[in-house]
Amino acid sequence: MDSESILNKKSAPNENSALNNKVISNYDSDIICKPILDYEAALNFISGRAIFGSRPGFERINALLDRLDHPEKGLKYIHIAGTNGKGSVCNTVANILTKAGYKTGLFISPFVSNFRERMQINGEYIEKTSLVTHTETVRKVVKEISKLNIEPTEFEIITAIMFLYFKAEKCDVVVLEVGLGGLLDSTNVIDTPLCSAIVSISFDHMSVLGNTIEEIAVQKAGIIKSNGVTICAPNQPENALHVIRTACFERKNKLIIADPSEIDLISDSILGNTISFDSITATLPLIGKHQIDNFSVSREIIKVLISKGFEISNDAIKAGIETTTVPARVEVLSTNPLVILDGGHNVDGAKALKNALCKYIADKTKTLVIGVMADKEVDLVLSILAPLAKNIITTLPNSNRSMKAEELAKAAKKYCKNVESIKNPTDAFDKALKIKNDSIIICGSLYLAGDVRQHALKRLNN
């Protein structure tokens, strides 16, 4: 398994302390003593930290940043949290700012195919040499604080590298996506940003974030800082919106609720939405009605930035919209044959995919290639997507949280009679190509998207 794959093979985010202690006792500390001289070594060092799991709190990230002279200070941020839509909003806003001439950092989580997707400047991935340099800087600090029994997690290491990179490159602005939740996420060490944004909130990662919408909303609203501006997605559950309103009141934030009714939908298709707003007409190459809601958040972010002195022309907004791409978000890999890749991994994500499929390709027969995490609401996701398919191939994404392909196939047979399991994701896709249906839908997990995307593009282009 290569280092890129290892980095996408995450441990469960809710590992308890007993398991963490057991794993840490077996940790090979030699890895932090070896200088990082090349890209593979950098990836191996980062992936090696996965054994420490995902542990909320700021002790470890602050210990890192203290000794790195706080590279997070002095940068301007747009901080984005939420359950669904973060990637679309982050990429759209970053693209518009780039087109407006600002040196724009973008931090996203997770990546789909290439680790360097996580850190971008003006749409370009972090250079391998820069990743090596900054990872080596962080490694030296990790070696030092490890002697104090402070062991940063994988995501905390990545966050520190990101701050070093954007500071060294003197970014004008950074679009910063939360890793998990918000309140205790390591990105939340920043001071009050230019604005905070909270996209759609729904059930996901309940073992970490809570079992009610209110509890989850408290975690998301944790990014709201004193005396700031917060933008909230439309159509939030009322109990989530109450949490956000309360947080904004207590922290003296101006709250802006995005309004998609101010955006006219001119036309839509399986290739995107043509929209009109503020004397601008543009085609957003992101698919589905939910992307209008997401864009309404992006629009409000840009309006806030303009009010703060950013010079962003209508031409830059149009150009930014029309060149926005987000891998594995109802992404059309090919039109002949029609192949759609979607990394949605929760119930709301499944509903958004279903809505797009029913609206744009309702008359096409479908082969579903699906793999899911066992800790998700699997039966609910299947009940939404499986009835749309003529054939289903279940598979095993590259994660130790994945549901076995055979178990998923058994569950899927409740909704579709033509179901088979193929453990290897690329083999599953190759089999789907041989089935004479009108379309192939690859879905269920961002891990599966990462496993299949590059292979599928190569096969489809040959």
Essential attributes:
single chain; 462 residues; alpha/beta; UDP-N-acetylmuramoyl-L-alanine:D-glutamate ligase; Protein-Tyrosine Phosphatase, Chain A; 2 domains; eight-stranded mixed β-sheet; six-stranded mixed β-sheet; 17 helices; 17 strands; 41% helix; 16% strand; globular
Describe this structure in words.
There is one protein chain. Helix content is 41%, strand content 16%. With 462 residues, it is of the alpha/beta class. The protein folds into 2 domains: 3-322, UDP-N-acetylmuramoyl-L-alanine:D-glutamate ligase (3-Layer(aba) Sandwich); 331-461, Mur ligase, C-terminal domain (Protein-Tyrosine Phosphatase, Chain A, Alpha-Beta Complex), CATH 3.90.190. Helix 4 packs parallel to helix 7, helix 5 crosses helix 11 and helix 13 (347-360) packs parallel to helix 14 (378-385). The radius of gyration is 22 Å and the shape is globular. The relative contact order is 0.11.
Characterize the largest beta sheet: strand count, sense, and whether it forms a barrel: 8 strands, mixed
> Percent range for helical residues?
40-55%
Strand runs, count: 17
State the shape. globular
CATH class of the largest domain: Alpha Beta
Query: In what range is the share of β-strand residues?
Result: 15-25%
The name of the CATH superfamily of the largest domain reads: Mur-like, catalytic domain
Between the first and last Cα atoms, what is the distance in angstroms? 25 Å
> Which strands sit side by side, in order, in the main sheet?
4-3-2-5-1-6-7-8
Low confidence ranges: 9-27
Q: What value does the average pLDDT take?
A: 91
The structural class is: alpha/beta
CATH architecture of the largest domain: 3-Layer(aba) Sandwich
Count of all domains = 2
